[in-house]
Structures are given as structure tokens and as C-alpha cells.
Amino acid sequence: MLTSIAGRSVIVTGGSKGIGKGIAKVFAKNGAKVLVVSRTLSDAEATAEEIKAAGGTASGIAADVTKLDDTQAMAEAAQSRHGGLDVLCANAGIFPQGTIEELSPEDWDQVLDTNLKGTFLSLKACLPGLKASDQGRVVITSSITGPVTGFPGWTHYGASKAGQLGFLRTACLELAKYKITVNAVLPGNIKTEGLIALGEEYLQSMAQSIPLKALGEVEDIGYAALFLASKEAAYITGQTIIVDGGQILLESLDALK
User: Which domain holds residue 129?
Assistant: First the structure.
């Protein structure tokens, strides 16, 4: 058990559903004080209530990560409510599908603004609090899509996720003098609400291309983020962890026969 997370103040953007909700629950289960961030206050507060009902410490706030004023208010809320700021989990992201032919410039900007600019603005706003911590950590939720793999309809998403890794490799150098680490988790196919809604047959078909023969759970990403945020991971920065059940290792599905 990573006991160094207990009592730490953690922000999880996009924390009301999917992977973000899994991250928030894992941190709270391990004793962190979690600020759940969502564009919709009722969603953020609902997840915070679930965490509190399970014995954890959490509160919710509405913030749009594409707006600096919102991210600054988010950072200030974590410090005032939870006594400081130790960890930023920059998880907020969107992934509407659209081919190059279909995408408008506005579609492209919306994804890059949320996924990439949102990561920058979240870290910028949280930096004063992280600098004041003796365990400043930034954990970015990227993806295998973009940095490692591709998928039709996700050029904008893939570009944003690859861009996050370019961002972290310089951010970690700038923040090293403050003993703040910056790392990323790259999820593969994770069982979120959106995928579950597509039905069990769809989930099973996706699992066939994964060596472990199952989609990941949101908690799998949460535990990877938890490790990177821990005191035990203090000497790790500028790195990525792929959490995909071995999916990217295949040359073809014949490898699973």
C-alpha cells in the first residue's frame, strides 16, 4: 500500500466519470483528499458524494479546463478546502469521432483546447500550490492512441494525446528545480460508461485483440496514477506508463493464436 498518499490534496480534472472517476476513487480509497472537477457541478458533487459514502474525503467543483480563470478557481478551492495542493491528475479530455474530411476547424480546436491546452492551463494554475508542497506531482492521462497507435476518426484526439507527451517532457525539466515530477499514464481500451453502453458483444469483440483477453477497468489507470503520485516514485519524472493489457505488442491477431 502506498501510504505516502494519505492526507495529500489531489485534484482530478474530468473526475466525475470514466477514467477520471476511477482515479478519484482510488486516491480517496488510499486516504487522499480529492477535489473532483467537472464542467457540470452536479456531476462533480455526485461523484464526491459517492466517495464520501465509501468513507473517503472529497468535494466537487465545476471548472472548464480551457479557461484559465476556471483552473485558477479550481486550484484555489483545493488549497482552501483541503489545506494545500500536492497532486494534479490532468485527466479531462474529449474524443468525438470525425474523419479528416468531416472535421471542421472548430471541431479540431475543441479537442485540442480541451485535451492539450487544458493540460497546460491546469498545470499553470496549480503550479503555485504544487511548488509549496513537499510532494508535488503531476500525472497526465494521455492514451496509446496518438503516441503509439492510430485509429480512423481520431486524428484530432491522437494529435492532442501525442502533444501531451511533448508537453510533459519539457514541463518536467522546468519543474525539476521545485522537486515536482511530471509523468503520464497511457490507457488502452478501458471499460468506461461509453463502452459499456455499446453492449457486451461489442466489449467481447474488442477484448479479442488484447493479450489479457479483457478490457481494463478504470481502477487500473487509477492505481498507475497513484504510484506516479506517491513518495515512492519521487525519482521518476518525464516518463510514461502504458496500461493496455499488452494490446500494443501485437504484430497481428495471429500472435494470440
Answer: 3-243
